[in-house]
Design brief:
The N and C termini lie far apart (about 65 Å). This protein has 25 helices and 42 strands. A hairpin with a 5-residue loop joins β38 (about 705) and β39 (about 710-715). Strands 6, 7, 8, 9, 10, 11, 12 and 13 form an 8-stranded antiparallel beta sheet that branches. It is an alpha+beta fold and about 1050 residues long. α10 packs across α16 (about 810-825).
């Protein structure tokens, strides 16, 4: 028996070691893929088409259930166009409300917005701050809105920013503070802000201007004010954040001292309280971040931000630096506290418009509260990092899953909805409490406080506040994270001093509590009224399950050893049973496991099993386009009329005789002359930052991500996420079509630089369009095209049901996408033939290379599926060469430029490998000029990066290699686990792997001379300034690509 125990322990130890050794890559990949805090769901949820192109502020977002159906609706503003009211459908989606037109305010230049039941009739009304006259919409029982601002006495005209609500005199009616920024319209005081206004609710639907109660400090260019009880004396004080850009009087704090003083006593105590910061104040977060039961302030600035910690004695101390939330190089706007991970501590989110020095990536930081007075920035897995110029932000649990979500307003790009995904990988609990006033308490219960204590002794305090952040109205219900606690005690303090204690309240439930009520009053659970399923709380798969055959094999070995030990111990029956079961498991594992099957299976059986493991199936071809659409796309692809200077065409960088690329590490776009390696560069112009990706087989319906950084993604069914955001035209019928909208907007690729003239000496009208209005390029191009009779005929033939005046560039993009999908899709490679059942398609060497590719070499970790890519992003430690991208030049941060995530630094989309042997140079910047060098880099990426030789590059790029130690260290700090660990292959195995990659070449892709048209409708040179004849037949030279 002792021997059995010893053998059992040893076997378990061996299994544990093997499992630990075998799964680190899969476990890391699973964690990185699954751990997300916020995910952009705007398109899926229907939050779109809510901004026009402008540089005006996007800071008005308000949550409120206007129709009392139990689901929070959303209102967003657009100062240059119509505001939008969205109705929450209760299933995670929104539609434009049938009442939207009543509150659209198309000419009002709207800013902030808040929902509030100002007349206590049980229906949320809507206040909108405008430039000029504000708007107050009275809710007609959920059936409509009526504008009543004039009748209500809210007639002051100014550059209003936000209306905040609070019952300062505690008469049960919500009063209103309106912040005003600069003079309106011209008041002769250009450096003095417009006067803020305090309105007292008369309880009869009207308000009285009582700004005199504040005595001074109301003309400081205010952005946001908040009613809240900073000194814990049970009456609402007012804190105001001012912008010193106009009138630097500093922030204001009015302490509420009650009745008297010719009406009401507010004492200005900002200076003595240490809260009179003079800065470019814009956003304000109010919350008890340190759980000491008093309210703290965090406000934004043109860096650094300030966190005023309430000392509990009426004073504040700025602790932003110590807390780790100073963000010294950020231009901050909206800010709010929220417990995004439900751990019982208020976290912090800040919207950044830009960096203070206008350099680098301005990603919105999400700070996790460390429960010790400090915060840590969540640098990965957070799509709410949103690198666009962000301004407003508001929080709400719009889908009632217990995890607080965000809506963020972006300058010139509309509003984005971010769903909180933390619940999918966290076991923390939560509690939501909706308070409803009555009698002496306003119906919204603004000013009420709730103290929640969990069994571990942690006490949180939250106050119902209406109006904070920046132009925002967050949800009024209070959300508490409980961490691991499943129950909590509550103490509710109503604005009139009434208190209610509730013991042992169950977690993971939303409740409603109404006033008045006895101390024994029970909470009313709020039931979800939708049939929509909540998001799963835990992942549905684990990394361990991915290799069950190996686990079974290890268990089989263990049982065999245990059976042997039992036989030795004279337990023959038991030993035989254990050994038999172990043998069965081991045989099954040998057959099923991709790691072990080579021991018992033929090469084809082994390869087919490996390919199945990598989900390699024939992709889905799109329906063939009409001949007319193909002809239109062909003309557009080859015609330089789409180039701003009429010198570059799509084919300039994607020539079919050059592997649908240009044989250059990075392309030479506008101003260049020649084709491929002979193309000459105009030294006064920038190179295109990244390698021209091949166009082969991009029409498959499985494609969802395109471009090296993935800035275009989506499908026609759900829509496309792109740099154009909501301004991307509707009607794009493929991802390729969406992609075709953007090269024409790039100054380096096709549009040209400011001041350019076209080849005829005329002004380039596309180049003068500001970069933030690139959507105007598309109608300008259509005017060019439709001025050419031959194009009118082509468009009419391709779109016979569309009047010419309704044609947009999306129709041209659809044609371009259809042409590329039809002209450059080939399925006659040995790989394709093998995929369709021809087991003789591969040479023996290529077949062994395929087994390596899908097995030992680990290539299919990223190059999976029939697309030969996982469409994900990886940092493979590629050397930084070329001009770099954007403000980060000479570096290219890759996917991080789109996500703001540190985990995406230097990560690029996995390229598809069809025809990879003829699509060099390789990598996102063409750093490697031979396929073998690219393969060797992938196998030993760290060593390859450190030993990179830039002499292989063209003279244009040799001096662009960023090989400084700090750059290499930065790349390696975030490199993928695969790149970090490397794979050891023999020279023979590397040769076999390359043989497989060459077997991905389609013979049809080698002979594409027939695609070159003799002419294009504009009459310009075919392909632009590429200096090749119209066709090989005309020149007497047949060009051919050799693999």
């Amino acid at each position: 028996m002792r021997r059995i125990v010893i053998v059992t322990v040893l076997a378990l130890f061996v299994i544990a070691v093997l499992l630990q050794h075998g799964y680190p890559l899969s476990a890391q990949a699973q964690n990185q893929a699954s751990v997300q805090s916020f995910v952009n769901v705007s398109w899926q949820a229907g939050i779109r088409d809510n901004r026009v192109a402008s540089t005006e502020q996007a800071m008005g977002q308000a949550w409120g259930d206007y129709d009392n159906d139990g689901w929070l609706d959303l209102y967003v503003t657009d100062p240059k166009s119509r505001n939008t009211l969205y109705h929450n459908n209760g299933d995670g989606t929104f539609t434009v409300s049938p009442l939207a037109e009543q509150v659209a305010l198309p000419q009002s230049h709207s800013s902030g917005a808040t929902f509030a039941d100002y007349d206590n009739d049980g229906w949320k009304d809507l206040f909108v701050a405008n430039w000029g006259q504000n708007s107050l919409f009275h809710n007609q029982g959920g059936q409509g809105f009526v504008e009543v601002a004039r009748r209500a006495g809210l007639m002051h005209e100014a550059n209003h920013k936000l209306g905040s609500w609070g019952d300062f005199n505690q008469d049960g009616w919500l009063d209103l503070y309106v912040t005003n920024w600069s003079c309106y319209p011209e008041c002769g005081r250009p450096m003095e802000g417009d006067t803020d206004r305090l309105y007292q609710n008369n309880g009869d639907g009207t308000f009285t201007d009582v700004t005199r109660y504040l005595s001074s400090g109301v003309n400081g260019a205010g952005f946001v004010a908040s009613f809240q009880d900073y000194d814990n004396d049970n009456d609402p004080d007012i804190y105001l954040v001012n912008d010193e850009y106009i009138n630097g009087i500093g922030n204001m704090l009015w302490r509420n001292d009650g009745a008297g003083c010719q009406g009401w006593c507010f004492k200005q105590v900002a200076q003595e309280a240490g809260a009179n910061s003079k800065l470019f104040g814009m956003g304000l977060a109010v919350g008890d971040y340190d759980n000491d039961q008093d309210l703290d302030y965090y406000f934004s600035n043109v860096g650094p931000m300030e966190l005023l910690q309430n000392q509990g004695n009426g004073t504040f101390v700025n602790v932003a630096l110590q807390a780790g939330v100073e963000v010294p190089m950020g231009i901050g706007w909206g800010a709010l506290f929220l417990d995004y991970d439900n751990d019982g501590w208020q976290d912090l989110y800040l919207a950044l418009m830009d960096t203070a020095n206008h350099d680098g990536i301005a990603a919105n930081p999400l700070f996790r509260n460390n429960a010790d007075g400090t915060f840590s920035q969540i640098s990965c897995g957070n799509q709410a990092a949103d690198v666009r110029p962000s301004m407003g932000v508001a929080a709400a649990d719009y889908d009632q899953d217990g995890w607080v979500d965000l809506v963020v307003g972006n300058l010139d790009e509309g509003y984005r909805l971010y769903h909180n995904q933390t619940g999918s990988h966290s076991g923390n609990h939560w509690l939501r409490l909706e308070l409803r006033g009555g009698g002496p308490v306003n119906l919204d219960a603004v000013g009420a406080r709730v103290y929640l204590t969990t069994p571990d002794g942690n006490t949180q305090m939250q106050e119902v506040i209406n109006g904070s952040s920046l132009g925002a109205g967050s949800e009024l219900a209070l959300h508490f994270g409980l961490g691991q606690a499943e129950r909590a005690d509550l103490l509710v303090r109503w604005p009139d001093g009434t208190q209610q204690a509730l013991q042992n309240v169950r977690a993971d439930q939303a409740y409603r509590l109404e006033y008045p009520g006895s101390a024994q009053a029970a909470l009313i659970p709020i039931q979800r009224s939708s049939t929509a399923e909540p998001l799963p709380r835990f992942p549905t798969t684990l990394g361990l399950v991915a290799d069950l055959p190996l686990l079974a094999g290890l268990i089989g070995i263990f049982l065999l050893m245990l059976g042997w030990a039992a036989l030795k111990a004279a337990s023959s029956a038991q030993g035989m049973a254990l050994a038999g079961l172990g043998a069965l498991l081991l045989v099954a594992a040998l057959i099923a496991s991709p790691r072990l099957s080579g021991l018992v299976l033929t090469k084809d059986a082994q390869l087919q099993r490996l390919m199945a493991q990598a989900d390699v199936q024939p992709p889905t071809l799109p329906p063939p386009p009409s001949e007319a659409l193909f002809k239109l796309g062909e003309a557009l692809f080859w015609d330089p009329v789409l180039g701003g200077n009429r010198e570059t065409a799509c084919v300039t960088c994607h020539h079919p005789l050059l592997g649908t690329g240009d044989n250059l590490s990075v392309p030479i776009g506008t101003g260049g002359v020649g084709l491929g390696e002979t193309r000459l560069h105009d030294a006064s112009r920038d190179l295109v930052p990244r390698n021209a990706p091949a166009l082969y087989n991009l029409g498959y319906l499985e494609w969802e991500v395109i471009f090296w950084d993935g800035r275009i993604s989506g499908t026609p069914a759900v829509g496309f996420d792109s740099p154009a955001s909501d301004r991307l035209p509707q009607g794009l019928d493929s991802l390729l079509a969406a992609q075709a909208m953007f090269p024409v907007t790039s100054r380096e690729e096709m549009r040209g630089k400011l001041g350019d003239q076209d080849i005829f000496g005329q002004k380039n009208e596309l180049a003068v369009i500001p970069d933030y209005k690139t959507s105007q390029i598309w109608p300008s191009l259509m005017r060019r095209l439709l001025a050419i009779p031959a194009y009118v005929e082509l468009f009419q033939a391709a779109y016979p049901a569309v009047p010419v005046e309704e044609l947009g560039f999306q129709h041209a993009a659809n044609a371009l996408g259809a042409y590329q999908a039809q002209a450059f899709t080939f399925e006659d490679s040995p790989f394709d033939r093998y995929l369709h059942g021809d087991t003789a398609a591969f040479s023996p060497e290529a077949k062994q290379g395929a087994i390596l590719f899908y097995g030992k070499a680990g290539c299919a970790t990223c190059h999976a599926t029939g697309l030969l890519t996982d469409q994900s992003f990886h940092n493979m430690a590629v050397p930084q060469v070329g001009p770099g991208k954007g403000r980060d030049q000479p570096l290219d941060y890759g996917r991080a430029r789109e996500t703001g995530s540190d985990c995406d630094l230097f990560a690029f989309r996995t390229p598809p490998l069809r025809n990879v042997a003829i699509t060099g140079p390789w990598m996102h910047n063409g750093a490697y000029t031979t396929l073998e060098a690219a393969v060797r880099h992938q196998l030993r990426a760290v060593d390859s990066l450190k030993a990179y030789d830039p002499s292989q590059l063209s003279p244009l790029l040799k001096d662009t290699c960023q090989e400084q130690p700090e750059v290499i260290a930065a790349i390696l700090a975030n490199a993928d686990a695969y790149a970090q660990s490397g794979v050891s292959l023999s020279e023979k195995e590397i040769s076999q792997l390359i043989a497989f990659l060459e077997a991905l070449t389609s013979p049809s892709a080698l002979h594409l001379e027939h695609l070159i048209p003799a002419s294009v409708p504009s009459g310009l040179p075919v392909g632009g300034n590429i200096q090749v004849t119209a066709s090989p037949q005309d020149s007497g030279q047949v060009l051919e690509i050799q693999p």
